[in-house]
Structures are given as C-alpha cells and as structure tokens.
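In this section we walk through a basic example: taking a raw amino acid sequence and producing a predicted 3D structure, encoded as discrete structure tokens. The instruction is simple. Fold the sequence below.
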Amino acid sequence: MTSEADHTPSRACYLRGCRETACEQANYRYMARLRLDHHRGQRRRHDATQTRNHVERLYAHGWTQAQISRAARLAHTTIRGLEDGQATVSPATARAVLNIPITQAPDDLRDVDATGTVRRIRALAAIGYSLASLAPHLKLHVSAVGRISRGEYEHVRATTAHTTTRIYRELSRTPGTNQRARNHARKHGWHGPLAWDDNIDNPDAKPETAHGRQRPGQAPPDIDPRRVARLTSEGLTTAQIAERIGCHPRTVTRARKRAQQQAVAA
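The resulting token sequence is shown next.
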C-alpha cells in the first residue's frame, strides 16, 4: 500500500487494488455517473461498425487516410484504429467522421504528387531563398517546408502545390540573398530554376545541366523574345542561341514560346 504522502485518491488507484476510503469513493462516484448516463441512453463508447463503414465508403470515393483525418480534424492514428478493427469509438469521433459527406474529396483536401513542389522549393533555395523565408509565403510552418524539401512526402495538398507554383513563378527570376540557403542547396545537389522547364512536375524528368550550368544565386535571365525570334529566323539552333546570349537552352525555349504568343496576340 502506498504512503499517505504519495497517494492520490482515484478510481484508477482503486482498480489497482487500493481500498482506501477516498479511492472507494472515487470509484463509487464514477460508477454512479456511468449508471446515470446509461439510464439516460448516453453511452460512453459507441460500436465502431457504422463509423468504420463510413470510412470505407470514403475510401471507395477516392479519399485517402490523410484527407479523412484532415476533414474530421482527427489524428491519423484514430482513422487507422478504425481500419484495424477497433471495436468501439467515442461519440465525438463518430460524429466527426459521419459528418463527412460521401462525395469526392474537395480540392482543398485533395493530395497531389509532391515532385513539382519539392523541386520548386529546392530551386528557390538554390538561388538564395531560405526555407524560413519561404514558409510564410507558402502558408506552412518552416518544419513542414523542410520535410517537403527533403522529399519526405510523396504527396502534398493540392492547395500547397498551387501556392508553391505561384510563389515560384514570382520569385524564380530574382535571386535571393541567403548564402546559407545556397550552400545548403549546393551541398545536397539541389538544382536551380535554370535546370527545369515545363517538365518540373514530371517525376521522370531529369534536370538539364549540360549547357549553361547555373551558378549559385543566378536566376533565369529575362531574354528578349524578339531577339530569340530573330536569331531563330536566321537559322540558329536552340543551343547556338543559348551560347550566343549566354543563357540556358531552356530559357531560349521559353523565350521562343513567348515570342509566338506575342505574334498570335498581335
């Protein structure tokens, strides 16, 4: 038996075998409340079958465990417990899951391949943007940005991917000022914006670094599309134009597309 100094009366202590008066009273109060709840038809735990079936129906409509946990505002482990055959569930958990409509997951909960998001964050780091400075723009905690940049996630939320694409478009032409970010990117072999084109989201695409290798802190140069169009009309190849202008071949390709768009608009 525990000494009076370190003894805290409770039902848990009673269940461990303590028969102190205070622990017996704690157990009595708990059982009295439990009987009252049962008399009122209020169960402390519900059978989990209906909730588990609802989760399975959501899976059938394309939801993932992460999406369900976000929509219900529950921990992943709670949803996993239902999948694993947990017998009972709390009323609050049951309500949270059953309130999710059986539809396709909404766009703000939909998960997409993380490849493009990872590459964009790494590319911005390579030209001098620290993860801490990017986090507020991406509306993420810096630790989450770090995990994404390290490739720890195969998928990210669609809203995160869209936001990252927008921020990348805004920042990738202007070098950042954080040398530590550049050094970190160089150490881990991260490629800057010049290495990617429209295929940045393609998991099978490889960075193009054979020509015009990007220097740390170098952002894609803003090439005049008219100059590229003129050199193209003179019969120069993409590689020859890149060599003459002093840029990456992908930059020439982008400038040529802009020239074509301007010609159509005119």
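Looking at the output, two observations stand out. Residues 21-39 form the longest helix (19 residues). The chain has four domains: 4-39, 46-98, 111-195, 225-265. In the next section we compare this with other chains.
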